[in-house]
Fold this protein.
Amino acid sequence: MENNILLSIAVTTYNRRRFLETTVSRSIKQIVDAGLENEVEIVISNDTSPDNTAEYVTAVDTQYSFVRGFNQPKNLGVTKNLEWIVNEARGTYVQLFGDDDLLEDGAIVAFVKAIKKYKPNFILVNTNNIHSLDDANKEYKVVLENRLNIQDDIFMEDFTKDYGALEPAYHWWYLTNFITANIFRKDLWQKEMEAAKKYVKPKNVFLWQAPLIIGISKYGKLLLMSECFILCRKNPTDNYVLDPRGRYYINLFESIEISHLVKIFMPSLYKQHKKIYAAFVMDSFILETNNGKNVRKFAWIAFCSYFDIFPENIQFLSMTIAPKLITHFAPKLKNFKKSILY
């Protein structure tokens, strides 16, 4: 059977049926309304959810010819599930999709047009961050508009020669960390995944991001879409909530691996990338301290890892001595940091 699929929307999910239903139904409507059933598919990989997600995945797979749903027989974990679904996708291009993110109307048509016009290797789609007000994304509020802070699309042929073209886009490289904001050529992602595993441990939750960092730097042809077609759910308690190792562990140890990768392939962005994750680590330490966990030894590791990142380095050192005191004054510290940085 001939495969004419241009784009695979690849949704990995775990234990969030109501979010998944909203996400998938909105994408299905766009595909049907635009008559794209022969060019765009939706692939769903349910990672052995303990709720009734499997019933929905089976039902939607049966109902629509362009939807393929899979219920994994055993839990793969975040990283392996993402790699599995890319390999399963039939599209020339793949958009990894968070089960709690949403597409604005017209997004899929715009993606298909952009792919045909530019023939890019990678696409980063501008986002609005949202907070859900329920357990199904039926109601939400926008908490950050136009993350890239651009009004026009940006296309870069060669990463080294044309790098300056990306400067108007605020922290564009950080968007490679948002699953739903990325569309990429499947063959290049698969090729660079093998290279990525030389730098990033297989269980690192950011492993899927590594082929993007390597690929963009090597192959270029990066398109930044200025319209905010992605609504990225950023509720404060969401990040890595299902990972038993805890947010502080992932932010501290696994982000450092990605920072090293950035240093090798995008060295000019290394310091900025590291600084962002230092702030994430500090926030997770504050959260864990409020939850009664002793983070002193991890704060010392963070200080050694981020000794060149001010003012977080001072905060990490202080948390090895008086974590509860630093946590108490955290709001004032944040305001002070803003005053000296902006």
